[in-house]
UniProtKB/TrEMBL annotation:
A Pfam entry, by short name: Cupin_8
Protein name (record): JmjC domain-containing protein
InterPro entries: Cupin_8, JmjC_dom, JMJD6_ArgDemeth/LysHydrox
A GO term from the CC aspect: cytoplasm
Domain (JmjC) ranges: 97-250
GO molecular function: 2-oxoglutarate-dependent dioxygenase activity; sequence-specific DNA binding
Organism: Larkinella knui
SUPFAM superfamilies recorded: Clavaminate synthase-like (SSF51197)
Gene Ontology terms describing biological process: positive regulation of translational termination
First and last residue of the signal peptide: none
Amino acid sequence: MEQIQKLDSISYGQFIENYLKPGIPVVFKNASASWKSNRQFDPDFFRSHFGNHKTVYKGKEYSMNEILDITEKSTLENPAPYPILFEIPLQLPELLPMVDPIDMGYAFPNWFRNKVMPYGKFGNSIHLFIGGPGNQYSLHKDMYHTNAWITQLYGEKKFVVFPRDQEELLYPENASFISPINIMKPDYEKYPKYKDATPLSIILKPGETIFIPNGIWHTTVAASHNISLIFDQLNGYNFKAWKKDMYDYSRKKSKLVAIAKYSLAQTLGSICKLSEMTKSY
């Protein structure tokens, strides 16, 4: 994986063979053009349609208008709180028809869209992220080995990803999905192996979508005031890793709970696989 490619177009079959199966990130320049709405999803749009909708960050409630004001004024020296996000199906459900088909002709099958999959659990989420200059996400790989799809609705965001074979250079805490390394100011004395890491970066622009395969370590740095739509994907290609995570994350608390979660994962996966075969969802 020498660079992250930006593609004007590609067939679904080519995407599966060249990127999904080998686990290689890629950027689609205009996949979101398939959405039914051709609106500009800029701050004015969210102010006029969802200005009074509220969410909570660290125990404090914020309205959409307040979040847009705060992040618009964010600076490197005085960054806005981050990440303040909205759970789209629960807090902004009116947005969903506008971004249909959410899979954009590439992110399918997605077993999280099956009705048996509980929203907000086991990696199943659809989020709206709003940020500004100075905002930076932690270096991580997504829980439950889900595939991540991020569409930049407004502004620009820098994505930094690491090849699969570099996990040990990132010092994951307790073999978890979080790294303590700040890629903007790495402490080479504390984390000397990070010197050998070879991160790849790319700027995601409005209308572009990045596919980040499961197990890929990544982070983001805001290049400007920005708004992103993010959702996760599960299907037969990452089901085995997802099922293992269901067990492993619970095993730290209780082996009995872990066994129950593993059994649940197997059942849900079987239902989703059958639904996929019969195209009933």
